[in-house]
Automatic annotation (TrEMBL):
Residues 62-206 form the Dyp-type peroxidase N-terminal domain. The keyword Metal-binding applies. This is Deferrochelatase. GO terms for biological process: iron import into cell. Involved in the recovery of exogenous heme iron. Extracts iron from heme while preserving the protoporphyrin ring intact. It catalyses: heme b + 2 H(+) = protoporphyrin IX + Fe(2+). Residues 279-289 have a biased composition (Basic and acidic residues). Belongs to the DyP-type peroxidase family.
Length: 412
């Protein structure tokens, strides 16, 4: 065993307690919770615990869907190079899967590794791969393109940049260390070689593990608790809502999910002019703890029928929480796993900041689309956000032993 691998093994041993805690919280944290409690880690081992946590590359589902939110993230879309087709796509997915498996285990990317993450463990790294609708045209696999990949409808609030939308291939990278995340991004880009070129790339972040005294649902850049109503794996219909079941029209998608990816600019200057009470009415939840305006705690159900002394609904008719509630949309639900972004400040002092919205569902036609249509017609939050980029990707199930991601599609 190399000295480097021995060092990683020592960090894993030191971090056993922290890693076990993170694993135990993984399912419950699917609702956006930062899945680390500062008090759960022995003194002096917090950094080792964060660094030593590894996520398996292989499994029923790809990594990066059910895991807790990570501190750093990169989203990148590729287009196959001119003249590249199915043969090149097979070779590319083999390379990408191999490098992702090594990196997620805390190992070097391979010969010529840059050494960027040399001193770190895997740090909860996940690398997730998906295919856009155009991928099937480029590879001659149109007959295997799922109907769920039909283009998303246009929404009145869209201000989409085509150059930062869609793509043949999509890669989501997340980690609890910025250098580990960048290292994976660089490795994925290098392994693309001549087969594919970057179409767009976006960077995101979340609260760092251990920054709060207890596990908490993340806040977005508006200061709002974001993810309170995410479906939970403990719910009996969770798998049906989020993952593709066996026996469908496209067997290669069994265990997979569909990712809707949107860059949502937050108009923070306008939002921050609102008093907190007005912000709460726009959202329909208390800013302090994410609880519904109708009372209780963050996980309490919204009482949409409750009225105040003035006879008006306590949760306003156009409140974001009311309009997006599953009970208002025929049970439509998505597992949201976002990153915040900040890409600088304009000459006029306006921050280019917001949310890299990533929503997972078994069928976007029954998840994202009906909810977004309803939001598009009268969400009080709409004047304070702008959808600037969009993508829809089929993310196949996790690879089995000896498989690469997408093998059941590309070699069926």
């Amino acid at each position: 065993m190399s000295t480097e691998n021995l060092d990683i093994s020592r960090r894993k041993l030191l971090g056993t307690v922290g890693a076990a805690g993170a694993t135990g919280l993984a399912l419950g944290a699917a609702g956006g919770a930062a899945a680390y409690a500062a008090g759960s880690q022995p003194a002096g081992t917090a950094l080792a615990s964060v660094g030593s946590t590894a996520v398996p590359f292989r499994g029923t589902h790809q990594a990066g869907i059910l895991q807790p939110l990570q501190a750093r993230g990169h989203l990148v879309a590729f287009d196959l190079a001119p003249g590249a087709g199915r043969k090149e796509a097979v070779a590319l997915m083999r390379r990408w899967s191999a490098v992702a498996e090594r990196l997620m285990a805390g190992e070097p990317a391979g010969p010529g590794d840059t050494g960027v993450a040399l001193d770190a463990g895997p740090s909860s790294l996940t690398v997730t791969f998906g295919f856009g609708a155009s991928f099937f045209d480029r590879t001659g696999l149109v007959a295997r393109r799922p109907a769920e990949l039909d283009p998303l409808p246009a929404f009145s609030s869209d201000r989409l940049d085509a150059g930062r939308s869609n793509g043949d291939l999509w890669v989501q990278i997340g980690a609890d260390d910025a250098l580990v995340a960048f290292h994976a991004l660089r490795a994925v880009q290098k392994e693309a070689g001549a087969a594919a070129r970057v179409r767009w790339q976006m960077n995101g972040f979340n609260r760092s593990p251990g920054a709060t005294a207890r596990p908490m649902t993340a806040r977005n850049l508006m200061g709002q608790v974001d993810g309170s109503r995410n479906p939970k794996p403990s719910e009996p219909d969770f798998q049906k809502r989020i993952f593709v079941a066996a026996g469908g029209d496209q067997p290669w998608m069994t265990g997979g999910s569909y990712a809707v990816v949107r860059r949502i600019r937050m108009l923070l200057d306008d939002w921050e002019k609102l008093p907190p009470e007005r912000q709460e009415r726009v959202i329909g939840r208390r800013k302090s703890d994410g609880a519904p305006l109708t009372g209780g705690g963050e996980t309490s159900e919204l009482d949409l029928d409750r009225t105040g002394p003035d006879g008006k609904p306590v949760v306003p008719a156009d409140a974001h929480a009311r309009i997006s509630a599953p009970e208002q949309n025929g049970g439509a639900a998505m597992l949201r796993r976002p990153f915040s972004f900040h890409d600088g400040i304009g000459a006029d002092g306006t921050p280019d900041a917001g949310l890299l919205f990533i929503a997972w569902q078994a069928d976007p036609r029954r998840g994202f689309v009906p909810v977004q249509r309803k939001l598009d017609r009268g969400d009080a939050l709409s004047p304070f956000i702008r959808h600037e980029a969009s993508g829809l990707f089929a993310v196949p199930g996790g690879p089995g032993a000896g498989e690469y991601v997408g093998q059941r599609l590309l070699e069926a």
